[in-house]
User: Which sequence fits this backbone?
DNA sequence: TTAATTTTGTTGCTATACTAATAATTAATA
DNA sequence: TATTAATTATTAGTATAGCAACAAAATTAA
C-alpha cells in the first residue's frame, strides 16, 4: 500500500465503523419498539445525568451544532419526553428538563442501551479500550 | 466510571471523532473552493482506481446503501464528473465512468486530500495505526 | 416456458449534519 | 447612555443515512 493512501484508508475505516455502530444501535432501537433515535437518547441521558441544561450546553456536550440540537429538542418535546422551561436569568434561553415520562424512559432503556453498546466491544481487552481511547482523542485533538 | 457506562462513552467518542474527521475534511474542501463533498470524492476515487463500476459495486465498496449511492451519483452526474453508461449485459444496471473532467479533478485533488487525511494522524505511530485498525475491524465484525 | 424469486436501481419519508442568515436578547465599550 | 458586539436559538437550504416500497429486469424453479 502506498504510504500516502494509507491515511485515507484509515479515515475511511473510522467512518465506516462509526456508521456501523450507529446503524446497529438504530436497528436494535427499532427492534425494541422504541420511538427515539440514538441521538435523541444521548440528549435524554445527558439530562438524566446532569439535570436541566440549556440548548447550548446540550449541543456542546454532545458535540452537535445548534440547529441540530434545536431539531432534536423539538422532536423530544413532541414526544413529551422533555419540556422547555424559561431560563430564569436569560430570556433568550430555555432550560431543558426531562418530563416524568422522559425520566421513566431513560430508566427503562438504560440497561438495554448498555447491552447494545457492549456488543461492539466483544473480544476486546481493557488495554484495547485504553489504546482506542488514546488514539481517538489524539485524532480529535489534531483536528481541533 | 461505572463499568457499563464505559462502553457508551467509547461509542460516543468514536462517533464524535468520526464526525470531526468528516467535518474537518468538509471544511478544507470548502476552503479549497471545491464543489464536491467528501462522500462524492470517495466515489470518484473508487472509479479512478478501479475503472467503471455499477452502482451496486460502488455502494458495496463504500459501505453506503443503494438510495444514498443513487443520490451521490445523481449529483456527480449534474456536475459532469461521471457518466452513466448502459451496462452491456444487464439493462437494469449502469456502468458508472469518470468523464475527462472527473479524471482531471481526481488528479488535481488527490495530493491535497492526502494532506487532509494525514493531518488526523499527527503524532501517532505505525504501531498505533495497526492497533487502531485491528480494533475498528473487530468492532465492525462484532456488529455484522 | 411460465411463475416465483432475486437483483438493480429509484422514489418518498424521516433524521442528522453543516452552513448561512436572521431575530431577540444580553454584554461590552465608547 | 447609546452603540456595538456577542450570545442563544431558529429557519432555510443542501447533503448524507437509513428504511420501506416500488418498478424493471434477470435468474431460478416448477
Assistant:
Amino acid at each position: 500500500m502506498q504510504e500516502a493512501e494509507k491515511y485515507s484508508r484509515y479515515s475511511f475505516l473510522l467512518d465506516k465503523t462509526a456508521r456501523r455502530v450507529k446503524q446497529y444501535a438504530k436497528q436494535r432501537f427499532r427492534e425494541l419498539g422504541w420511538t427515539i433515535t440514538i441521538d435523541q437518547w444521548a440528549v435524554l441521558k445527558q439530562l438524566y445525568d446532569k439535570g436541566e441544561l440549556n440548548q447550548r450546553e446540550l449541543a456542546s456536550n454532545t458535540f452537535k451544532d445548534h440547529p441540530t440540537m434545536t431539531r432534536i429538542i423539538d422532536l423530544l418535546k413532541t414526544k413529551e419526553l422533555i419540556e422547555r422551561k424559561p431560563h430564569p436569568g436569560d430570556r433568550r434561553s430555555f432550560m431543558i428538563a426531562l418530563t416524568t415520562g422522559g425520566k421513566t424512559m431513560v430508566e427503562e432503556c438504560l440497561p438495554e442501551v448498555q447491552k447494545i453498546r457492549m456488543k461492539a466491544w466483544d473480544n476486546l481487552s481493557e488495554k484495547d479500550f485504553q489504546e482506542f481511547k488514546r488514539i481517538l482523542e489524539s485524532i480529535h485533538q489534531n483536528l481541533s
